[in-house]
Design a protein that fits this description.
Elements (H helix, E strand, L loop, with lengths): L24 H16 L2 H4 L12 H4 L9 H11 L2 H25 L7 H17 L1 H9 L7 H27 L5 H36 L9 H24 L5
Helix pairs in contact: 5-6, 5-8, 6-10, 7-9, 8-9, 9-10
Length: 256
């Protein structure tokens, strides 16, 4: 077995040896794969890695990007021009349809044990539901903002998501969990609960609309923090309603 020399002198450095340098064959294959991936990558993927939109990038030192260099603003402007109103509304309706079921799925996966019932009803449930009901629309706002043409499409997606969520939730409550429900409970769920979910989703949708509007006007990446206050308000309103119902039922003020 040949042992490596432990001589620390620079004469043993690879680039000072008499023999020619032999590249690792795996490096060639890796380079070919990288080049292939770069050729196949779409502009939607490439814009995620452009350095021109880095917060710490200084245009004073590096200069302005050349005409052929990809920036987020150029990508967004081109995509907006390429997206027809028909495709935009198709995406809007698709998001409006999937928002409700996606919210229900998120609520089910966030369910906890009986020991956390109060926290589940007042905190965990409202937070999970309000996030999941607008999650699909939020993904579009963050990753594909060009698919929306106006804030009204975003508000439609959010409100429709709340309505669809309430519809599915009512079917589960009334015909799966409580098949012997009273007419008063059914009326309550189809009016008050539906209104709650739609209004909370609308409020969260306002936050999404603010994020989108700022991004398309300024032609820069969406700033998610702009919508957080509105999403938080939706969570608080939902949690406050749930807490009030729990207190009213425990005190005997509400009989359903």
């Amino acid at each position: 077995m040949k042992w490596r020399s432990r001589d620390p002198s620079i004469e043993n450095e690879p680039h000072l040896q008499d023999r020619a340098y032999e590249a690792d064959p795996s490096e060639t294959r890796s380079q070919q794969r990288i080049e292939s991936e770069e050729q196949q990558a779409s502009a939607d993927d490439a814009v995620e890695h452009t350095v021109w939109d880095e917060p710490t990038f200084s245009s004073e030192l590096a200069g302005s990007p050349a005409e052929d260099q990809l920036t987020y603003g150029r990508w967004l402007k081109q995509k907006q021009a390429e997206t027809s109103h028909l495709n935009s509304w198709f995406a809007t309706l698709l998001i409006a349809i999937v928002a409700g079921p996606w919210g229900v799925l998120g609520a089910l996966t966030g369910a906890g044990g009986s020991g956390f019932r109060l926290a589940l009803i007042v905190i965990i449930g409202p937070v999970t539901e309000e996030i999941m009901k607008v999650a699909a629309a939020l993904w579009i706002v963050e990753k594909r903002p060009y698919l929306f043409k106006s804030v009204w499409q975003i508000l439609l997606c959010a409100t429709a998501g709340g309505a669809a969520f309430a519809f599915i939730e009512n079917l589960m409550y009334l015909y799966v969990y409580l098949p012997e429900h009273s007419a008063k409970l059914a009326a309550w769920r189809w009016t008050v609960c539906v209104g709650l979910h739609m209004n909370c989703s609308f409020v969260a949708g306002v936050g999404l609309a603010r994020i989108w509007d700022n991004a398309v006007r300024e032609q820069h990446r969406p700033q998610l923090w702009l919508g957080l206050p509105w999403i938080f308000m939706a969570m608080v309103a939902h949690g406050a309603y749930n807490g009030a119902v729990v207190v009213a039922e425990a005190a005997g003020w509400l009989e359903l």
